[in-house]
Every structure is written in structure tokens, then in C-alpha cells.
Amino acid sequence: MAYGNGAVPEVAAAVALRLRMRMLLAVGIAVMGCADQRGDEAARAGGGDTASSAPRRGRLISATPIASKSDREIALALRDNGLGPTGSNAVDLYKIVYETIDPAGQKTIASGALAIPRGVAGALPLMSYQHGTVVNRGSVASAYGFDVESLLFGGGGYVVASPDYLGLGDSPGLHPYVHAASLATAVVDMLRAARAFCAERSVGLNGQIFLLGYSEGGYATMAAHKAIEEEYASEFAIAASAPMAGPYDMSGVMRDRFMSDAAYTQPFYMPYVVLAYNQVYHLADSLGAIFRAPYDKLLPGLFDGEQEGFDINRELPSQPKELFAPGYLAAFQRDSLHPLRQALRRNDLYDWTPRAPMRLYHCTADDLVPYANSEVAYNSFRSRGAAQVELVTLSDGGHMSCGYPAIIKGKEWFDSLKK
Predict the structure, then answer these.
(1) Residue range 65-71: mean pLDDT, rounded
(2) Regarding the domain with residue range 9-250+346-417, which homologous superfamily does it belong to in the CATH classification?
(3) DSSP for 32-93?
(4) What does pTM read for this prediction?
(5) Do β-strands 238-244 and 159-163 pair in parallel, antiparallel, or remain unpaired?
(6) What residues does each domain of the chain span?
(7) Helices 269-281 & 339-346 angle (0-180, nearest 10)
(8) pLDDT digits (tens, 9 = 90+) for 112-126
């Protein structure tokens, strides 16, 4: 569920070198402690610690200036990315480190980027932008600087919070990929840290919260919207959310796509999911019980946080199901109560009723995250009476080509609702 890192042209040349040099924290996938089946519930509750070391979720640990751009520089950068000169103010970018919880509810840290508009009168809306799939922990805005979304929305007068997610940026361990509960807590706690930063720096906020993301970011947006309305409604008021091209039906549409005989152009997605879910739900006692040789030994090194997706893809078969040990695959395909099937179901994101306005954006010819994901979510929401949810069908473009058009549409909608 990838969609570029969005780095603007003037920093793109430096990104590759910087990513290779980032040796932040060692990652040991094969020997990681695994959260049990209670992990999601503990993460939602924020519990699992003693009173003396209880997590202070959203506590701002540090804020470091990264870069600044003038309105003219933003206009040129957006034009170079084919988005037009839509910025109207300067933007300062900061790296934020904040306290949050891991999937088991234990205290940890996470990082993100925070874009602050400069020279804008009045209180500003706060937007959380959720990025798409990355595996290299340095492929995030807090590490490489401005991305297109920070320029586009920051230049348009939004304070933009861009969480790196757990396991990326300064956060230790393997990223819990498409794990709904921990994506939601990372977003919620980044919003808290952003508010704390703005209070310290006398940046006025108008109370509006906007959520937007593409691909895994669309999934994270949906997860955060759900969590905020169900658990944090007294703290945040969502003005609107725009989940884009996300895998909301993990147990149905995505399972069928991963198990298909058709080639998949990003085969690293499936083992990324399984490694993450094994860490959270303890699917098996060893990777050898899940993956066939040599992948059971190869995959931990590939997902050490130092590789890029294209590096991993070169080592994998084009059909994701070929990674599995034959016995594990057969059991998964025949048993509806198989642990991996249950983990996928626990991370479906359509079995609830949104209250705030939501627009689902998706291209019909999406080759990686099928359009049916948005159809399933939309139909479920509407059947539950969520009349304020819309499905915006874009062109017949593929997953990679649909990102910027969707984000531009989302910004146009947010601008119409902005105070």
C-alpha cells in the first residue's frame, strides 16, 4: 500500500544517501517479544504499565526545526511536482518526538513532522496527513524534510501533523503494518503533541481537525477517524476525513488479492503484513512454521528497517502466496478460524458507523489496493445510516498514479469546509 514518500525535487538527491546512513536503532524481528491477543485492547486503553511509569500519551518530548520555505519556494516546488502554484504562505517544518504506546499498551516513543504556516492571520485548522507504505525507517518526513503534502496544505494555511508511525523514524522495532489500533494511537498522540507545540509557540488553532491519507495512509486515516469518534470524541472534533485508496477489507478483498495467481507488483506487502501481525498476535512459534525456506530466514533481514521496498521485491516471488510453507498455506485457505484469518478480520475497518463527514477517494483501476475496498466500506457505512459518507470515484488510473489527483481533490473539499 505504497504511495511514494513525496519528497520534493530539491531534497530528492540527498534522500538516498541519508537513508542509508540512518542507523537509529537495531531491529530484531525474529526474536521480538510478541504481544498476545489482548494487544489491541491494551493499546486502545493505554494500559499495561505501572502507575509510576504509565504512558503520558501525546507528551511532547522534543521539537527540532528542520527547514523553512517561503511562499515562492513552495509555489515552485508544487509546480515542479505538477500540482500548480497553490501555496500562499511560508511554512516552517519541525521534527516532533512524542510519547505514545505500542500494540501491547506499553510506553514508547514516536516521531513525526509538523508544518506550521507563517504569516497567516487568525486561528488555523489542524490536519493530520498519513503517509503511504514505507519500510526504510528514514523514508519519512521527519527524516528527509518537506514532502509535497506539508507544502500543499501548510502553504494553504493548515497546521500539518505528519506522524511517522510506530517502527519508523525514531520509533524502535518493526512497523506494525496495517495494524489499525496502533496506527490510530500514533495519529491521536501526534495530534496531542501538535496541540502542545502550538500552545507553547502561541500558534492559534480553530478546533477543526482534518484527516487525510493515501494507501496505508488511507487505512490509517480510517483507523484514526474510527478511534477518535469511538474513544476520543470529547477531545477532538473531526471536521472531515478523506481516506484514500486504503485496504479497509483486509480479510476479504486484500486476502483474495494476495492469494491470487496473478502477479503482484509489490510482493513485499504481504510478508510485511504477516510479520507485523505475527509480532502483535503471535501467529506461530517460529517464522519457519509460516514461510517456506529460504524466506523464513531471509525475511527478517529484509525488514530490518534499512531496506527500500524495491530492494525487498527483488528477493521475492511475484505471487505472494508462494512465500508460505505449503502446510501453512493449505490451512489458511481451508480454515475460516485460522489465526492469520482472524488477525485479518480484526483489522477490517468497515464494521462501524462514521459520524463526521467522510469522502472515500479511489481509482477504479487500482492494481495494488483494489477499488472494491472502498466499495465494501462505503456500502457498509451507508447501510448503517451514515448518509454523510461519500465515495468519490476517480479516473481509471493505477495505485501509484492516482495519489496526487486524489490529494488535490481532498484539499479542495477541505478548503470548502475550513473556517
Answers:
(1) 96
(2) Alpha/Beta hydrolase fold, catalytic domain (3.40.50.1820)
(3) PPPP-TTHHHHHHHT-SS-GGG---TT-EEEEEEEEEE-HHHHHHHHHHTTS-S---SEEEE
(4) 0.89
(5) unpaired
(6) 9-250+346-417
(7) 90
(8) 999 999 999 999 999
